[in-house]
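TA notes, week 10

Several of you asked for a full example with nothing omitted. So below is the full record: structure tokens for the whole chain, then the designed sequence directly under it. When grading your own attempts, check the secondary structure regions first.
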């Protein structure tokens, strides 16, 4: 207890408390917004692909697909086999109406991870939008093979087969 008394009676204690309060306050500002948090993370850990992916993801979540692309690109530069980042690039390009690039990104994702059900579904959607019906059907079937309970893939496949 003798050491504790020395700390409590120290004239530096108020200054230490103020410094800790300022540091806590400034860190809390970072945690107020997910984009701010992930920007801070990419600044402090620029070689972490997941941080770049997460930053891009939150731009997508905010409806800012164009702003997400450089962050997803950085994620795949750092980790070329990052299927989720390739698929996220596909989502961003699809939201911007660039179906050719979106298709390429989804194809990269399923090549890296053939069991990536969401990427197969999204690839099917893009191919359908591009008019590649046979390829879209194959993608939807693969998505259903990987997740037979995916009602949306089942519905899309049924709709496309009825129309063509």
């Amino acid at each position: 207890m003798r050491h504790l008394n020395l700390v409590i009676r120290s004239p530096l204690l108020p200054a230490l408390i103020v410094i800790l309060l300022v540091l806590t306050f400034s860190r809390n500002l970072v945690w107020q917004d997910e984009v701010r948090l992930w920007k801070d993370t990419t600044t402090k850990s620029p070689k972490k692909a997941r941080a770049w992916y997460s930053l891009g993801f939150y731009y997508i979540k905010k409806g800012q697909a164009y702003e997400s692309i450089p962050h997803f690109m950085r994620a795949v530069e750092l980790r070329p086999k990052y299927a989720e980042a390739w698929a996220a690039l596909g989502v961003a390009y699809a939201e911007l109406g660039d179906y050719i690039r979106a298709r390429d990104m989804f194809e990269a994702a399923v090549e890296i991870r053939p069991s990536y059900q969401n990427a197969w579904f999204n690839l099917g959607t893009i191919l359908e939008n591009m008019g590649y019906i046979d390829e879209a059907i194959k993608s939807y079937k693969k998505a259903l093979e990987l997740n037979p309970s995916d009602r949306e893939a089942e519905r899309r496949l049924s709709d496309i087969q009825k129309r063509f």
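The mean pLDDT is 86. Use that as a sanity check on your answer.
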